[in-house]
Write a structure and sequence with these properties.
single chain, 57 residues, mainly alpha, 2 helices, 89% helix, transmembrane helix, membrane, transmembrane, Flp family type IVb pilin, Flp_Fap
Length: 57
Amino acid sequence: MTKLFARFLKDESGATAIEYGLIAALISVALITGATALGGKIGDTFNGLATKINAPT
């Protein structure tokens, strides 16, 4: 039983898969956050342009 437990502690194959999953999750959160912030700024820019175009001269 102790050999089985020692072999289980030395096995790192699952740990690398979890690490890759965490890295992918962090990258996707960063991309979503960046896209949301950028999308808001682009929307504000287009709204400002629309207001200027539709303003009476």
